[in-house]
Amino acid sequence: MNLRVAWFVTRGLIINGGGRNYGRCISTEAVVGRSMGNGSDFGNFDWRRSMKMMRTMSTASSPEEAKTLTEKDGRKENSSSSSVSEAKKDQGEAVVSSYWGIARPKITKEDGTEWPWNCFMPWETYRADLSIDLGKHHVPKTFLDKVAYRTVKLLRIPTDIFFKRRYGCRAMMLETVAAVPGMVGGMLLHLRSLRKFHHSGGWIKALLEEAENERMHLMTMVELVKPKWYERLLVLTVQGVFFNAYFVGYLLSPKLAHRVVGYLEEEAIHSYTEYLKDIGSGKIENVPAPAISIDYWRLPKDATLKDVITVIRADEAHHRDVNHFASDIHFQGKELREAPAPIGYH
Ligand SMILES: [Fe+2]
Ligand SMILES: [Fe+2]
């Protein structure tokens, strides 16, 4: 009897309120139902179907409308099932993600196995250029250079105190910050391009690529380090402060903003070098590389943490070059669009 009551209460919650919220929380990635980050497969039919129903209900203004939409959707699905299956045959297992008919064709890896990620595609992957000079340093000459350099050195003090040699946590936290400047810079250049009616010279794309690359560093690090609640709280606080500070800083002086990032990247190279030293000495276990990193950097299947940190460090060296270069362009009294943007520079 109690079980019956519990069932009706739960059902009522889902239909009247919970369903709406859940529907909004479900990402297209989840609805598509491909294998997710941990490699587990969420793609069984019943699961997709129930999620689809929740999405329908989230769009509808009333339960009755939701029911009608679902029924219509069901009829449409049945009547067009033969044509859909034909299309599926042509596209090779495309899965309709919603009643909007958005589908993704089957994507495979080079070895023929199914591509497991929705967050990035095979053509966005690359092999890191490990030959890059890690020791390059921009010697601060001008007043602004010195301000940028000192700012970064000052920021390092609380980081050293808080994390000490816990390089996993340190890297995870710093990547949440490192992915901000590219997005802010790219966004501001985008808006500038709209206001001024001119091209950005590719710099919007280059900076957004950097932001995405940094975010992939973070997605890799969270597979290795599970952040604690107070670290998540710290991320929220730091992001709130840093995003706004960088936004204002970039509006006032993009040459200072890019110089600061150039020096932050130099510090990141240093931190990852220390991380590698601790892996080499055995202080940090050289665990197998997360699957996401193997696919993103096209690493060998038996790659380890050491390989991952090595390619991330090479990425940071590229970001260092891009940002010092951007700052130099401004120092020469030019706009970024006047110099070729380093698109795809990893
Ligand atoms: Fe990074
Ligand atoms: Fe970076």
Put the structure in a nutshell.
By secondary structure, the chain is mostly helical. It has twelve helices and two strands; from the N terminus they run H-H-H-H-H-E-E-H-H-H-H-H-H-H. The chain has helices at residues 2-25, 28-32, 45-59, 63-79, 81-91, 143-163, 167-196, 203-224, 229-252, 254-281, 291-296, 305-331; strands at 95-96, 103-104.
The overall pLDDT, averaged over residues, is 80
Number of helices: 12
Specify the helix fraction band.
55-70%
- Flag low-confidence runs: 12-91
CATH structural fold name of the largest domain? Ferritin
Binding site for Fe cation 2: 214, 265, 316, 319
Protein name: Ubiquinol oxidase
InterPro entries: AOX (IPR002680), AOX_sf (IPR038659)
Subcellular location: Mitochondrion inner membrane
Kindly describe this structure.
- With 346 residues, the chain is an all-alpha fold.
- The chain folds into 2 domains: 2-91, no CATH class; 124-338, Ferritin (Up-down Bundle), CATH 1.20.1260.140.
- 66% of the residues lie in helices and 1% in strands.
- The protein is built from 12 helices and 2 strands, in the order H-H-H-H-H-E-E-H-H-H-H-H-H-H.
- It has helices at residues 2-25, 28-32, 45-59, 63-79, 81-91, 143-163, 167-196, 203-224, 229-252, 254-281, 291-296, 305-331; strands spanning 95-96, 103-104.
- The chain has a two-stranded antiparallel sheet.
- A hairpin with a 6-residue loop joins strand 1 (95-96) and strand 2.
- The chain starts with a helix and ends in a 15-residue tail after the last helix.
- The model is unreliable at 12-91 (pLDDT under 50).
- The structure holds fe (ii) ion (2 copies).
- One fe (ii) ion binds at residues 178, 214, 265, 268, 316, 319.
